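Lecture 7, part 2: worked example. A protein chain together with NAP.
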Amino acid sequence: MRLKELGSTAIKLPEISLGTWKYHAGPEPLRYGIRLGANFIDTAEIYRTENIVGEALTGIRDKVFLATKVSGDHLRYDDVLAAADRSLKLLKTNSIDLYQIHWPNPDVPIRETMRAMEELVDSGKVKYIGVSNFDVHEMEEAQSCLKKNQIASNQVIYNLSERGIEREIIPYCERHKITILAYSPLAQGELANPANLGSRDRTDAFTKVSDATGKTAAQIALNWCLTKPIVMAIVKAANENHVKDDCEVSDWRLSPEHVDTLNKAFKP
Ligand SMILES: NC(=O)c1ccc[n+]([C@@H]2O[C@H](COP(=O)([O-])OP(=O)(O)OC[C@H]3O[C@@H](n4cnc5c(N)ncnc54)[C@H](OP(=O)(O)O)[C@@H]3O)[C@@H](O)[C@H]2O)c1
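Predicted complex, written out as structure tokens:
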């Protein structure tokens, strides 16, 4: 598994991590993914999967980078601190590696939220601060409210069909060394079944690249996300065959010609 640096933290993380939204399997698929090198798990208080993640981490907490999120409805100072304590309890750990603001909330001054985030870092309950679903202006504002910390990552939707972040968010994050954690990299499974995409061009592009590389559609779609150095992908897989497929995405790269074929078929 190739590693990429998280923001400017100097921490190296696997470029494929394990998502847990709508994850209804037990701890074993997560533990299997960790054994295959994806020792980075993403959850959130609203997913109601923090308890399963906590179970999956039993005895191996020190080997895994753990990310969770505070809901955008809990961004008042006291609410952030209380949400973090609830997450720590469910995750059965003393520290969250990456604590992310799940979505921005214009009704709460971001300064108040960031004061709580820095308080969590100071107390050792959180190591790094991240955001999610933030646009460039929201990232700028959030960073300007932090006194001692840098935003390490922005978790945003990114896949072959959803490329809106290429216009402003990716260039901004490249300039400021903020990692993009791409969520829904398979468009919630849609890209794993190109025959169902409803476009002859797109199906043909996948077939061409798949025939040349011997990789599955899911592997091609995931690998496409990883071709940008600043991007890491969070994929959810409850099926262990899928977990294996996804963890084998990192030791090779699509050629520039194959990237071009896919880009042409998925022109934004
Ligand atoms: N920050 C946010 O607002 C936000 C929003 C959405 C998601 N996320 C995060 O991003 C993670 C991933 O996104 P997602 O859950 O929306 O969707 P996704 O990862 O794009 O797709 C998940 C679907 O793809 C299937 N799949 C996975 N690997 C496969 C493979 N190798 N071959 C065929 N099918 C495969 C899974 O099936 P099985 O489960 O049956 O294996 C599942 O149905 C989430 O779990 C969550 O952690 C964050």
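Residues 19-21, 42, 102, 132-133, 155, 183-189, 192, 218, 234-239, 242, 245-246 surround NAP (CB under 6 Å). The chain has one domain: 3-193+221-253. Keep this in mind for problem set question 3.
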